[in-house]
Write a structure and sequence with these properties.
80% of the residues lie in helices and 0% in strands. It is mainly α.
Protein backbone atom coordinates (compact mmCIF):
# COMPACT_ATOMS: atom_id res chain seq x y z
CA UNK A 1 0.00 0.00 0.00
CA UNK A 2 2.86 2.37 0.80
CA UNK A 3 4.44 1.72 -2.59
CA UNK A 4 1.13 2.46 -4.26
CA UNK A 5 0.88 5.82 -2.45
CA UNK A 6 4.47 6.73 -3.36
CA UNK A 7 3.85 5.78 -6.99
CA UNK A 8 0.73 7.94 -7.10
CA UNK A 9 2.59 10.88 -5.58
CA UNK A 10 5.33 10.55 -8.19
CA UNK A 11 2.76 10.42 -10.98
CA UNK A 12 1.36 13.72 -9.76
CA UNK A 13 4.57 15.48 -10.85
CA UNK A 14 4.20 14.99 -14.64
CA UNK A 15 0.46 15.64 -14.29
CA UNK A 16 1.02 19.04 -12.68
CA UNK A 17 3.78 19.85 -15.20
CA UNK A 18 1.36 19.12 -18.02
CA UNK A 19 -1.25 21.35 -16.35
CA UNK A 20 1.21 24.25 -16.15
CA UNK A 21 2.01 23.78 -19.84
CA UNK A 22 -1.66 23.79 -20.84
CA UNK A 23 -2.39 26.86 -18.71
CA UNK A 24 0.41 28.85 -20.31
CA UNK A 25 -0.72 27.76 -23.79
CA UNK A 26 -4.24 29.03 -23.11
CA UNK A 27 -2.83 32.27 -21.70
CA UNK A 28 -0.76 32.82 -24.84
CA UNK A 29 -3.72 32.39 -27.21
CA UNK A 30 -6.29 34.23 -25.10
CA UNK A 31 -6.94 37.78 -26.32
CA UNK A 32 -6.29 40.66 -23.95
CA UNK A 33 -3.32 42.68 -22.76
CA UNK A 34 -2.73 42.89 -18.99
CA UNK A 35 -0.46 45.93 -19.43
CA UNK A 36 -3.14 47.87 -21.27
CA UNK A 37 -5.66 46.93 -18.58
CA UNK A 38 -3.29 48.08 -15.83
CA UNK A 39 -2.12 51.33 -17.44
CA UNK A 40 -5.18 52.26 -19.50
CA UNK A 41 -4.84 54.70 -22.39
CA UNK A 42 -2.84 57.40 -20.64
CA UNK A 43 0.51 55.79 -21.46
CA UNK A 44 2.23 55.57 -24.83
CA UNK A 45 3.04 52.35 -26.66
CA UNK A 46 6.75 52.77 -25.85
CA UNK A 47 6.02 52.95 -22.12
CA UNK A 48 3.74 49.92 -22.37
CA UNK A 49 6.49 48.01 -24.19
CA UNK A 50 8.88 48.74 -21.30
CA UNK A 51 6.35 47.40 -18.78
CA UNK A 52 5.81 44.27 -20.90
CA UNK A 53 9.55 43.69 -20.95
CA UNK A 54 9.77 44.09 -17.17
CA UNK A 55 6.96 41.56 -16.70
CA UNK A 56 8.48 39.14 -19.21
CA UNK A 57 5.42 39.18 -21.46
CA UNK A 58 7.50 39.72 -24.60
CA UNK A 59 9.49 36.51 -24.15
CA UNK A 60 8.88 33.42 -26.32
CA UNK A 61 6.67 30.62 -25.05
CA UNK A 62 9.43 28.20 -24.00
CA UNK A 63 11.40 30.90 -22.18
CA UNK A 64 8.32 31.94 -20.21
CA UNK A 65 7.53 28.31 -19.37
CA UNK A 66 11.06 27.40 -18.24
CA UNK A 67 11.34 30.65 -16.28
CA UNK A 68 8.07 29.92 -14.46
CA UNK A 69 9.12 26.37 -13.57
CA UNK A 70 12.63 27.49 -12.61
CA UNK A 71 11.29 30.07 -10.18
CA UNK A 72 9.02 27.43 -8.61
CA UNK A 73 11.56 24.62 -8.20
CA UNK A 74 14.65 26.73 -7.44
CA UNK A 75 13.24 29.59 -5.41
CA UNK A 76 9.71 28.54 -4.45
CA UNK A 77 8.48 31.70 -6.18
CA UNK A 78 5.08 31.44 -7.88
CA UNK A 79 5.19 34.98 -9.18
CA UNK A 80 3.90 38.39 -8.16
CA UNK A 81 0.42 39.70 -8.85
CA UNK A 82 0.22 42.39 -11.52
CA UNK A 83 -2.52 44.20 -9.61
CA UNK A 84 -1.56 43.98 -5.93
CA UNK A 85 2.24 43.60 -6.38
CA UNK A 86 2.11 40.95 -3.63
CA UNK A 87 3.45 37.35 -3.81
CA UNK A 88 0.77 35.13 -5.29
CA UNK A 89 1.45 32.15 -3.05
CA UNK A 90 0.97 34.18 0.12
CA UNK A 91 -2.41 35.50 -0.99
CA UNK A 92 -3.55 32.03 -2.07
CA UNK A 93 -2.56 30.51 1.27
CA UNK A 94 -4.60 33.18 3.03
CA UNK A 95 -7.70 32.57 0.91
CA UNK A 96 -7.54 28.82 0.34
CA UNK A 97 -8.76 27.79 3.84
CA UNK A 98 -12.09 29.53 3.13
CA UNK A 99 -12.54 27.62 -0.13
CA UNK A 100 -11.51 24.35 1.48
CA UNK A 101 -13.91 24.93 4.37
CA UNK A 102 -16.78 25.68 1.97
CA UNK A 103 -16.10 22.56 -0.12
CA UNK A 104 -15.73 20.35 2.97
CA UNK A 105 -18.99 21.54 4.53
CA UNK A 106 -20.85 21.23 1.24
CA UNK A 107 -19.55 17.68 0.69
CA UNK A 108 -20.61 16.67 4.20
CA UNK A 109 -24.06 18.08 3.50
CA UNK A 110 -24.23 16.43 0.07
CA UNK A 111 -23.20 13.06 1.49
CA UNK A 112 -25.53 13.33 4.48
CA UNK A 113 -28.47 14.21 2.23
CA UNK A 114 -27.71 12.11 -0.84
CA UNK A 115 -26.98 8.70 0.71
CA UNK A 116 -30.18 8.45 2.84
CA UNK A 117 -32.33 9.65 -0.09
CA UNK A 118 -30.71 7.08 -2.38
CA UNK A 119 -31.31 4.28 0.11
CA UNK A 120 -34.90 5.37 0.67
CA UNK A 121 -35.61 5.52 -3.06
CA UNK A 122 -34.05 2.11 -3.69
CA UNK A 123 -36.02 0.42 -0.92
CA UNK A 124 -39.27 1.91 -2.29
CA UNK A 125 -38.64 1.19 -5.95
CA UNK A 126 -41.38 2.11 -8.48
CA UNK A 127 -43.51 3.74 -5.80
CA UNK A 128 -44.64 7.34 -5.53
CA UNK A 129 -41.85 7.97 -3.01
CA UNK A 130 -39.25 6.65 -5.42
CA UNK A 131 -40.60 8.76 -8.29
CA UNK A 132 -40.64 11.86 -6.09
CA UNK A 133 -37.01 11.27 -5.07
CA UNK A 134 -35.96 10.81 -8.71
CA UNK A 135 -37.82 13.95 -9.79
CA UNK A 136 -36.25 15.99 -6.98
CA UNK A 137 -32.79 14.69 -7.89
CA UNK A 138 -33.20 15.58 -11.57
CA UNK A 139 -34.55 19.02 -10.66
CA UNK A 140 -31.63 19.76 -8.31
CA UNK A 141 -29.03 18.53 -10.79
CA UNK A 142 -30.52 20.64 -13.59
CA UNK A 143 -30.88 23.83 -11.54
CA UNK A 144 -27.98 26.31 -11.90
CA UNK A 145 -26.28 26.97 -8.59
CA UNK A 146 -26.05 30.73 -9.11
CA UNK A 147 -29.82 30.95 -9.72
CA UNK A 148 -30.54 28.91 -6.60
CA UNK A 149 -28.15 31.13 -4.62
CA UNK A 150 -29.99 34.26 -5.74
CA UNK A 151 -33.31 32.71 -4.73
CA UNK A 152 -31.97 31.89 -1.27
CA UNK A 153 -30.60 35.40 -0.84
CA UNK A 154 -33.91 36.97 -1.86
CA UNK A 155 -36.01 34.72 0.40
CA UNK A 156 -33.88 34.09 3.49
CA UNK A 157 -31.67 37.16 3.54
CA UNK A 158 -33.66 40.04 2.06
CA UNK A 159 -37.24 39.04 2.89
CA UNK A 160 -36.97 37.02 6.09
CA UNK A 161 -33.59 38.41 7.25
CA UNK A 162 -32.55 35.08 8.79
CA UNK A 163 -29.06 34.84 7.32
CA UNK A 164 -26.51 37.49 6.31
CA UNK A 165 -26.36 38.41 2.64
CA UNK A 166 -22.57 38.19 2.40
CA UNK A 167 -19.48 37.43 4.44
CA UNK A 168 -18.61 34.84 7.07
CA UNK A 169 -18.53 36.92 10.24
CA UNK A 170 -20.14 34.01 12.13
CA UNK A 171 -21.34 30.46 11.50
CA UNK A 172 -24.54 31.67 9.83
CA UNK A 173 -22.55 32.98 6.90
CA UNK A 174 -21.50 29.45 5.91
CA UNK A 175 -24.99 27.92 5.76
CA UNK A 176 -26.36 29.35 2.51
CA UNK A 177 -23.12 29.03 0.46
CA UNK A 178 -22.59 25.44 1.63
CA UNK A 179 -26.21 24.48 1.00
CA UNK A 180 -26.14 26.12 -2.44
CA UNK A 181 -23.03 24.21 -3.42
CA UNK A 182 -24.21 20.92 -1.90
CA UNK A 183 -27.66 20.70 -3.48
CA UNK A 184 -26.71 19.54 -6.96
CA UNK A 185 -23.99 17.21 -5.67
CA UNK A 186 -26.41 15.65 -3.16
CA UNK A 187 -28.73 14.82 -6.04
CA UNK A 188 -25.89 13.16 -7.98
CA UNK A 189 -24.87 11.11 -4.92
CA UNK A 190 -28.51 10.10 -4.33
CA UNK A 191 -28.89 8.82 -7.90
CA UNK A 192 -25.62 6.88 -7.65
CA UNK A 193 -26.58 5.43 -4.26
CA UNK A 194 -30.00 4.37 -5.52
CA UNK A 195 -28.49 2.57 -8.52
CA UNK A 196 -25.89 0.76 -6.38
CA UNK A 197 -28.42 -0.19 -3.72
CA UNK A 198 -30.80 -1.67 -6.29
CA UNK A 199 -27.98 -3.74 -7.71
CA UNK A 200 -26.76 -5.00 -4.34
CA UNK A 201 -30.13 -5.96 -2.80
CA UNK A 202 -30.66 -8.41 -5.68
CA UNK A 203 -27.46 -10.33 -4.91
CA UNK A 204 -27.53 -13.88 -3.59
CA UNK A 205 -25.95 -13.11 -0.23
CA UNK A 206 -28.70 -10.58 0.53
CA UNK A 207 -31.33 -13.21 -0.33
CA UNK A 208 -29.49 -15.68 1.92
CA UNK A 209 -29.48 -13.18 4.78
CA UNK A 210 -33.25 -12.75 4.43
CA UNK A 211 -33.71 -16.53 4.31
CA UNK A 212 -31.86 -16.87 7.62
CA UNK A 213 -34.60 -14.81 9.23
CA UNK A 214 -32.66 -11.57 9.72
CA UNK A 215 -34.73 -8.40 9.90
CA UNK A 216 -35.01 -6.15 6.87
CA UNK A 217 -33.19 -3.37 8.73
CA UNK A 218 -30.16 -5.58 9.36
CA UNK A 219 -30.20 -6.85 5.77
CA UNK A 220 -30.24 -3.32 4.38
CA UNK A 221 -27.76 -1.58 6.63
CA UNK A 222 -25.37 -4.36 7.65
CA UNK A 223 -25.14 -6.39 4.44
CA UNK A 224 -26.37 -4.33 1.49
CA UNK A 225 -25.26 -0.82 2.45
CA UNK A 226 -21.67 -1.81 3.18
CA UNK A 227 -21.17 -2.97 -0.40
CA UNK A 228 -23.41 -0.42 -2.10
CA UNK A 229 -21.56 2.55 -0.62
CA UNK A 230 -18.15 1.51 -2.01
CA UNK A 231 -18.64 2.96 -5.54
CA UNK A 232 -20.16 6.09 -3.99
CA UNK A 233 -16.80 6.83 -2.36
CA UNK A 234 -15.23 7.25 -5.79
CA UNK A 235 -18.14 9.45 -6.85
CA UNK A 236 -17.67 11.68 -3.80
CA UNK A 237 -13.96 12.07 -4.58
CA UNK A 238 -14.69 13.19 -8.13
CA UNK A 239 -17.45 15.52 -6.98
CA UNK A 240 -15.08 17.20 -4.52
CA UNK A 241 -12.93 18.31 -7.45
CA UNK A 242 -16.03 19.69 -9.17
CA UNK A 243 -16.92 21.50 -5.94
CA UNK A 244 -13.54 23.26 -5.98
CA UNK A 245 -14.40 24.73 -9.37
CA UNK A 246 -18.05 25.36 -8.54
CA UNK A 247 -17.13 27.18 -5.37
CA UNK A 248 -15.68 30.06 -7.41
CA UNK A 249 -19.12 31.28 -8.47
CA UNK A 250 -20.68 30.60 -5.07
CA UNK A 251 -17.93 32.51 -3.27
CA UNK A 252 -18.37 35.45 -5.62
CA UNK A 253 -22.15 35.60 -5.09
CA UNK A 254 -21.88 35.44 -1.29
CA UNK A 255 -18.71 37.61 -1.13
CA UNK A 256 -16.59 34.99 0.62
CA UNK A 257 -12.87 35.80 0.93
CA UNK A 258 -11.82 32.59 -0.82
CA UNK A 259 -10.17 31.82 -4.12
CA UNK A 260 -13.37 32.56 -6.06
CA UNK A 261 -13.38 36.35 -6.04
CA UNK A 262 -9.57 36.39 -6.18
CA UNK A 263 -9.44 34.26 -9.32
CA UNK A 264 -12.35 35.93 -11.09
CA UNK A 265 -10.82 39.36 -10.56
CA UNK A 266 -7.54 37.95 -11.85
CA UNK A 267 -9.28 36.65 -14.98
CA UNK A 268 -10.85 40.06 -15.57
CA UNK A 269 -7.51 41.86 -15.21
CA UNK A 270 -5.51 39.19 -17.10
CA UNK A 271 -3.35 38.71 -13.99
CA UNK A 272 -1.43 35.76 -15.39
CA UNK A 273 0.65 34.76 -12.32
CA UNK A 274 -2.50 34.58 -10.20
CA UNK A 275 -4.36 32.54 -12.85
CA UNK A 276 -1.50 30.09 -13.30
CA UNK A 277 -0.92 29.53 -9.60
CA UNK A 278 -4.61 29.26 -8.69
CA UNK A 279 -5.24 26.61 -11.34
CA UNK A 280 -2.06 24.76 -10.37
CA UNK A 281 -2.96 24.90 -6.68
CA UNK A 282 -6.50 23.65 -7.27
CA UNK A 283 -5.24 20.87 -9.56
CA UNK A 284 -2.76 19.73 -6.91
CA UNK A 285 -5.52 19.76 -4.30
CA UNK A 286 -7.78 17.73 -6.56
CA UNK A 287 -4.99 15.19 -7.17
CA UNK A 288 -4.45 14.80 -3.42
CA UNK A 289 -8.21 14.37 -2.88
CA UNK A 290 -8.31 11.62 -5.52
CA UNK A 291 -5.38 9.90 -3.83
CA UNK A 292 -7.15 10.03 -0.46
CA UNK A 293 -10.29 8.70 -2.15
CA UNK A 294 -8.36 5.74 -3.56
CA UNK A 295 -6.87 5.04 -0.13
CA UNK A 296 -10.33 5.16 1.46
CA UNK A 297 -11.62 2.90 -1.31
CA UNK A 298 -8.86 0.39 -0.56
CA UNK A 299 -9.62 0.52 3.18
CA UNK A 300 -13.34 -0.10 2.66
CA UNK A 301 -13.02 -2.75 -0.05
CA UNK A 302 -11.12 -5.82 1.24
CA UNK A 303 -10.39 -6.98 -2.32
CA UNK A 304 -8.41 -3.85 -3.10
CA UNK A 305 -6.75 -3.98 0.32
CA UNK A 306 -5.63 -7.56 -0.31
CA UNK A 307 -4.19 -6.55 -3.67
CA UNK A 308 -1.80 -4.01 -2.09
CA UNK A 309 -1.25 -5.70 1.25
CA UNK A 310 -0.02 -9.01 2.50
CA UNK A 311 2.80 -10.88 0.78
CA UNK A 312 5.26 -9.31 -1.57
CA UNK A 313 5.44 -10.18 -5.23
CA UNK A 314 8.50 -12.43 -4.74
CA UNK A 315 6.80 -14.30 -1.91
CA UNK A 316 3.73 -14.89 -4.05
CA UNK A 317 5.93 -16.24 -6.88
CA UNK A 318 7.68 -18.62 -4.44
CA UNK A 319 4.31 -19.88 -3.24
CA UNK A 320 3.19 -20.44 -6.83
CA UNK A 321 6.37 -22.39 -7.65
CA UNK A 322 5.89 -24.50 -4.51
CA UNK A 323 2.31 -25.27 -5.52
CA UNK A 324 3.46 -26.32 -9.00
CA UNK A 325 6.14 -28.65 -7.55
CA UNK A 326 3.65 -30.26 -5.18
CA UNK A 327 1.22 -30.75 -8.05
Amino acid sequence: MLRYIIRRLLLMIPTLLGITLIILMFIMVTPGDPVRIMLGTQYSEEEMAIVREDLGLNKPFLMRYTSYLGNIFLHGDFGTSYRTKAPVLGEILQRFPYSLMLCSISMLLATGIGIPIGIYAATHQYTLKDNAAIFASLFCVSMPSFWFALLLIQLLCVSLKIFPVAGVADWKGWILPAFTLALGYAAAIARQMRSNMLEVIRQDYVTTARAKGQSEMIVRYRHALKNAVIPVIMTIGGIFGMALGGSLITETIFSLPGLGSYMISALTARDYPVIQTCVLFMSATFSVVLLLTDIAFAIVDPRIRAQYGGKTKKARKRDQRGELRSA
